[in-house]
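User: Fold both of these, please.

Assistant: Here is the first one.
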Amino acid sequence: MRRRSGDNWIRIDDMAVSGARPFGNIVLQTFANRDFLQAHATDEQLLAVKPKMSPDAQLDQQLRPSEKGWQLTSLTLRLTSGVMFSQSLQPLVADFVGACDGSRTLAELTEALAGKVNASLDQVRRECLVVMRQLIERGFVCV
């Protein structure tokens, strides 16, 4: 809990971690991430941001043998410290997220992805911004 002005919110996460771990910094970072998202509530505001993946992010892939060699069965983005959240990703989303190195805005990143997949820029931006908001809130992306 914290005292603040503005709308209140609550977040409950189901986590398989020990309560003995210190979580103070993680809670403060969660507040900062949520504050950032509220300050960048419109798509236009978020598109101007230059996101960078957290140094604690890790992408795990699982492969199975097939008739044509190894076949990708899953991609999972994980945090390796703090609250060890994980999230399944599709290959194109993993490529998009991997391009978040802090050098380009989300507008530039989504434009590049739209050209790569030959899809409408509006549709790509809509879908990418949903994913980006989730990743920022969970601490996968630093802004």
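And the second sequence with its predicted structure:
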Amino acid sequence: MFESTNTNMGANYTKGLLLLALTVMGNFVAETLGCSTQKLLTKNRLAKHLVILFLIYFTLNITNNESVHPLHEIKMTFILFVCFIIFTKMSTKSTVIVFSALCLHYILGNFKTYYSQNNIHGYNDIFNVIDKGLIITIAITTVIGFVTYLLKERREHKNFNLYKFFIGVDSCRI
């Protein structure tokens, strides 16, 4: 999913996903919006998801250094949206592991770019091994975390509903 003929594309998708996560975490400044917008985004879960969808699209568009067909960006937007939904449907421990691994993957990409642009050789093999380990960690932790969380939610809720599971509810038990 994150691989392309152009190695910058994978980095752009990682940037987009990290920017999305940081933006959503920035929700604590929502009070700066107008009252009617606050009300819409407070009461309407689909509006929230629509904002996330467009945020992904615009983030991909902004972080992309080259011209990409808009349909490809739309396709990647939906793939990243599904990844984001799955990312939000894991236990806290799994989410922290995946988020940390994504951050390390991004930082490692910056090292690779820096060393490549400055003709510093000898680190590619170790970078590739670490990067593959991070990607495997992300994939395995995401699948296990998602399935575990889905099964836990099904057990805990008599009226379990997939729509509510994926779209969310207005209040969480903390």
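Residues 1-5 have pLDDT under 50 and may be disordered.
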